[in-house]
């Protein structure tokens, strides 16, 4: 389980982001009557040059 806060998914026991370990998407699959969790990488590049890519940053409220 993630030990971090990220956006709207906030935890009181882990208040900051952990990009080193959790800069990835969590994906769930239903297989053989069970849920299987897996991960896929976050792509930080845009699909064309019309929009600039920018590094992730913590949300500040």
From TrEMBL:
Keywords: Tricarboxylic acid cycle. Pathway: Carbohydrate metabolism; tricarboxylic acid cycle. GO terms for molecular function: electron transfer activity; flavin adenine dinucleotide binding; succinate dehydrogenase (quinone) activity. InterPro entries: Fum_R/Succ_DH_flav-like_C_sf, Fum_Rdtase/Succ_DH_flav-like_C, SdhA/FrdA/AprA. The keyword Membrane does not apply. GO terms for cellular component: mitochondrion. The keyword Metal-binding does not apply. Residues 2-61 form the Fumarate reductase/succinate dehydrogenase flavoprotein-like C-terminal domain. Pfam families: Succ_DH_flav_C. It comes from the Eukaryota. Coiled coil: none annotated. One of its GO terms (biological process) is tricarboxylic acid cycle. This is Fumarate reductase/succinate dehydrogenase flavoprotein-like C-terminal domain-containing protein. It comes from Lupinus angustifolius. The lineage of its organism: Eukaryota, Viridiplantae, Streptophyta, Embryophyta, Tracheophyta.
């Amino acid at each position: 389980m993630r030990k971090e806060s990220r956006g709207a998914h906030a935890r009181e026991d882990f208040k900051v982001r952990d990009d080193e370990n959790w800069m990835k998407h969590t994906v769930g699959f239903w297989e053989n009557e069970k849920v299987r969790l897996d991960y896929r990488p976050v792509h930080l590049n845009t699909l064309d040059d019309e929009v600039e890519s920018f590094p992730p940053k913590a949300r500040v409220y």
